[in-house]
Design a protein that fits this description.
With about 260 residues, the chain is mainly alpha-helical. The chain is built from ten helices and four strands; from the N terminus they run αααααααββαβααβ. The chain is about 60% helix and about 5% strand. It has a two-stranded antiparallel ribbon with strand order 1-2. Strands 3-4 form a two-stranded parallel sheet.
């Protein structure tokens, strides 16, 4: 995106007006979110209180009455009130989702414009001073260094260096990116399904598990895979890990013998 005075006029209706609209939208956005949060919390509290009262009144009945006309009447009495609250809250929940994921708003456009400025600076393009004036935290001297915006490439190269000796395997990674755009990452072992296929020399699993068999995995092989993946699973038990491996194998149409 090129930046010149024709594309980014100053004054009324231009860059200043766009920025003021952005700031006003941000404030209104926050106010509406807070108002909806308070209202929906009150409705949820009221609905939960009715649910509790319904259950207490129903439990106080004799066992024969709970499942008879009396118990049904109690449930219907409270249920109509709960449904009325749900109907009242439904549009508010929908609006909360819209505010949490804004689309095509002035706020989005302002953020997109800033990103265009950042990319232009990183690419070494000229950005007029009057455009940069709206983003005082952007330093043209620093941003002219493309490497400052090359973190994606840096992370990919670091990942490739760490996994070079595991070429051909699927190696999941968990990447943490910090505010200063630095990052750290950890690699994990391939998924259980990938290890099973490699162990059995399979290219694909069964397309119809339960009806077609793709191969057989011995208990010793399954136990070895479980031991390998134990550190990546949410368990410290080898038996639990083994059950995970066996379940994955069956879902692939592979018998465990």
């Amino acid at each position: 995106m090129l930046f010149d005075e024709a594309e980014h006029p100053r004054g009324q209706g231009g860059q200043f007006a766009k920025k003021e609209a952005h700031e006003m939208t941000r404030a209104e956005h926050g106010q509406e979110q807070e108002s909806l949060k308070i209202t929906t919390a009150a409705l949820n509290k009221k609905s939960n209180a009715l649910e509790k009262a319904k259950m207490e009144e129903w439990m106080n009945l004799e066992e024969d009455d709970r499942f008879g006309p009396v118990g049904t009447a109690i449930k219907e009495k409270y249920q109509s009130q709960i449904e009325a609250i749900t109907d009242q809250a439904a549009p508010l929940w929908k609006r909360q989702k819209e505010l949490a994921h804004p689309k095509n708003t002035v706020l989005d456009l302002a953020n997109t414009h800033r990103r265009h400025v950042e990319v232009a600076l990183a690419a070494g393009k000229h950005v007029p001073p009057e455009v940069l004036a709206d983003y005082p935290d952007l330093d043209p001297g620093d941003k002219f260094q493309p490497d400052a915006y090359d973190k994606k490439t840096d992370s990919l190269e670091a990942y490739n260096d760490k996994t070079r000796d595991q070429k051909g395997n699927i190696i999941p990674a968990v990447i943490t990116v910090y505010e200063d755009r630095s990052f750290t990452f950890i690699t994990k072992l391939p998924p259980v399904s990938a290890i099973i296929k490699k162990t059995l020399g399979l290219k694909i699993a069964s397309q119809k598990p339960g009806r077609e068999t793709a191969g057989s995995l011995t208990m010793d092989q399954a136990r070895d895979i479980a031991a390998q993946k134990l550190a990546d699973l949410n368990t410290d038990s080898l038996d639990s890990a083994l059950k995970t491996v066996m379940g994955t194998a069956r879902s692939m149409g592979i018998k465990v013998i």
